[in-house]
Design brief:
- The complex is a heterodimer of chains A (328) and B (362).
- By secondary structure, chain A is mainly alpha-helical.
- Chain A has one domain: ABC transporter involved in vitamin B12 uptake, BtuC (Orthogonal Bundle).
- Helix content of chain A is 74%, strand content 4%.
- In chain A, strands 1-4 form a two-stranded antiparallel ribbon. Chain A has a two-stranded antiparallel sheet with strand order 2-3.
- The longest helix of chain A has 32 residues.
- By secondary structure, chain B is mainly α.
- Chain B has a domain of 225 residues.
- Helix content of chain B is 77%, strand content 4%.
- Chain B has 17 helices and 4 strands.
- Chain B is globular, with a radius of gyration of 22 Å.
- Chain B starts with a helix and ends with a helix.
- The relative contact order of chain B is 0.14.
- Classes of the chains: A mainly alpha (328), B mainly alpha (362).
Chain lengths: 328, 362
């Protein structure tokens, strides 16, 4: 079944989605839309990659991922506000200080949520390895508990996410409006993707994790305590979700307790499109969803979500396991 | 010569009127029939009726989850389709007659059936776990669709509508047997009858040869494949049957509340309720749904009172009040605790204790 047509399918679909809108949209708008689409894609990648990695490696459908995302956004919000009160870097004119405070907030969010992920994995998920049914119930329970904890700690209302002052506004390049933050988001997303990719490809831990995605029993036979790696992967996935949450919150400039539930559906779609357990798949899937969503939202605003579903249906019917195989 | 299934059936038939379950069922039915005579307050009637509707909905979900062993996270989608068709026919189009009410139900059933077959066909093909994700995505999609298509669904405000003839709010037959027969009461009995019929249909379905194949798929899929069943087709059949039932329960819900909106009949929180009901009651029992629904509906009805008590006991402790307001938090904990300690739910655990005692007597 490995005809050349099938092998080039992912590339073809990416190119089609990337280039087709050029026929309908003027080039300037196209560039603006493309940048915000890429940014949305990168943010989705952060959520979907953790989800996909956890599913691929632990074989756990982690429905609490959205709640971890929300926790990331709230912790990012609080730590940003606190650091800003203390140092005032968020309002300073130096872009360097702006970036430092932003990264600090993201790192704090990532670390704390990774801790939360470890606790969740140890207490909640470990007893139900192997049973998809109970995993779904128990992660739904964990999702509700975490989301309600946010409402208890921070209150149920929306909050305005503070944004570093230099991140707002846009550059004007040859009459094309380019917002600043999407570009920053794309850069951070790319760096994280490359880091992940290098860890998975070049380090021993990465090799073990990739092997675990393929065949967990064999990894155990080789003398590695797979449960320790399970916890590690879960923590890493949670940290990715948290970083995604913090960046997403800065993107939309507001946070509310139910934000995770909305994004998790996108993450699910991205992970299925890209192929569960595949990092490259997550990137490609996320970019596809982000770009097509933005183009269609510009052309036919109400059909934006429809195109995402259509993409899912088309790809699942041509390639039921997603665009990329597990472990790539 | 009888095959094992026939022998089992015969045994079941003989024990039919002697088992305690039989009396339990009669009692339950009698309770539902007599509720309007026993309790005069509307709140109680409302809670009992919601228990009835949600028992049927949860039982239909149980057909997929407990009897077929595949997880759908978008079952409420069909419930919403049923509600919305009744709402659109009665409210938006203003076709208030019995014929149109029946037509709305019929169209909702057909559309739910087709939709679930399509979703099943392309998502059950690879792994059953895909089905969970794809159904969740579709439900979210429909939810957003229903709040965006203002001209058809009324957007977030929803549609409120009038019902024909004896179901209308202002209908009254006068007093009979000591209570007034209003449109509310007529709807109550109509929905009760429909739900009982649905329940019998589902019992018939899970005990039919198809139902047995489904249970064999749940217990050992490779073996059913080896026996020559196309498990994938059977799973699609089960999911579309359950979806049609869910559409009818959705229509009934719309008849009772006379209002549809995305939040009241198509949202993720309702799906969470259904999930909780199914695990509280017990999977693979059908009757578990009644207990699950009763548990959740009754607690929910009493929670506001509990909050008032806590607020008056601990005045000036905002954290405690906040903690008591977030009853969903405890439901989340309940999810985890039940999966830990009672993975079979109320009915499943009761059955287990019952059969253990029976075995020790033998």
């Amino acid at each position: 079944m490995n005809s050349p047509w099938k092998r080039w399918l992912p590339t073809l679909i990416v190119l089609a989605i990337f280039l087709l809108p050029l026929l309908l949209i003027s080039p300037k708008t196209y560039i603006t839309l493309t940048i915000s689409g890429l940014a949305m894609g990168m943010l989705l990648f952060l959520v979907a990659s953790g989800f996909s990695l956890i599913f691929g490696f632990l074989s756990v459908l982690n429905l609490a991922h959205g709640a971890l995302f929300t926790w990331g956004a709230y912790i990012g919000f609080t730590s940003f506000s606190l650091i800003n009160q203390w140092t005032g870097w968020g309002g300073s004119d130096s872009i360097f200080l702006n970036i430092i405070i932003f990264l600090l907030a993201l790192i704090i969010a990532g670390l704390l949520v990774a801790l939360l992920g470890i606790i969740t994995e140890r207490i909640v998920i470990r007893p139900v390895y192997g049973s998809h049914l109970f995993q779904i119930f128990i992660t739904v329970g964990a999702m509700i508990v975490m989301e309600e904890l946010i409402r208890i700690v921070w209150g149920p209302n929306d909050e305005v996410m503070p944004v570093p002052i230099k991140f707002m506004g846009s550059w004007d390049l040859f009459d094309v409006v380019v917002s600043k933050y999407p570009l920053i988001a794309i850069v951070i997303g790319l760096i994280l993707y490359l880091t992940l990719f290098m860890i998975l490809r070049k380090t021993k831990i990465g090799t073990i994790v990739r092997a675990g995605v393929e065949n967990p029993e064999m990894v155990q036979v080789m003398g590695h305590n797979i449960y320790r790696y399970f916890t590690g992967v879960f923590a890493a996935g949670s940290a990715l979700a948290a970083i995604g949450g913090g960046m997403w919150a800065t993107f939309v400039k507001s946070i509310h307790p139910a934000m995770g539930g909305e994004v998790i559906v996108f993450a699910l779609i991205v992970a299925i499109i890209g192929g569960l357990g595949s990092m490259t798949g997550s990137v490609v899937g996320a970019l596809l969803v982000g770009l097509s969503y933005n183009y269609v939202a510009y052309l036919v605003p109400k059909a934006a979500l429809g195109i995402t579903m259509l993409l899912l249906v088309i790809i699942l019917s041509i390639r039921p396991t997603g665009l990329f195989p597990e472990g790539t | 010569m009888m095959n094992p299934v026939q022998r089992f059936r015969l045994g079941e038939k003989e024990a039919r009127f002697r088992s305690p379950f039989f009396f339990f069922r009669i009692l339950l039915l009698a309770f539902f029939v007599l509720t309007p005579f026993m309790f005069r307050s509307f709140e109680v009637l409302d809670v009992v009726l919601k228990i009835i509707i949600f028992s049927a909905l949860v039982a239909s979900y149980d057909v997929i989850l407990g009897y077929t062993g595949i997880v759908s996270l978008g079952h409420v989608l069909y419930f919403g389709i049923g509600s919305y068709f009744v709402g659109i026919f009665m409210g938006k189009l203003g076709w208030t007659s019995y014929g149109h009410l029946a037509l709305a139900f019929l169209i909702a059933i057909v559309i739910s059936g087709i939709l679930s077959v399509l979703i099943g066909l392309f998502s059950l093909r690879i792994r059953a776990i895909f089905f969970a994700m794809v159904t969740l995505a579709f439900m979210e999609f429909t939810f957003i669709l229903s709040s965006q298509l203002r001209s058809i669904t009324g957007g977030d405000d929803g549609i409120s509508f009038k019902l024909p003839g004896i179901l209308a709010v202002d209908f009254s037959y006068g007093k009979l047997l000591g209570i007034e027969w209003t449109g509310r009461l007529m709807s109550y009995y109509l929905i009760l009858i429909i739900s009982v019929i649905l329940f019998l249909l589902m019992l018939r379905f899970v005990h039919s040869p198809v139902g047995r194949v489904l249970q064999s798929i749940r217990d050992n899929e490779p073996r059913s494949i080896a026996l020559g069943y196309r498990t994938y087709l059977f799973q699609v059949i089960a999911s579309s049957f359950a979806s049609c039932v869910a559409a009818v329960t959705g229509g009934c819900f719309a008849i009772w509340v006379r209002y549809v909106s995305p939040d009241s009949s198509l949202s993720v929180p309702i799906m969470l309720d259904v999930l909780l009901m199914v695990i509280v009651g017990g999977m693979g029992t059908l009757y578990g749904g009644i207990f699950g629904a009763a548990f959740l509906m009754v607690t929910r009805a009493f929670l506001p009172k509990l909050q008032i008590i806590i607020a008056s006991l601990l005045p000036g402790v905002p954290f405690a009040i906040r903690l008591s307001e977030r009853w969903l938090f405890y439901f989340g904990l309940l999810f985890i605790i039940i999966v830990y300690f009672f993975p079979k739910g109320i009915v499943g655990t009761a059955q287990e204790i019952f059969s253990r005692r029976k075995n020790s007597q033998d």
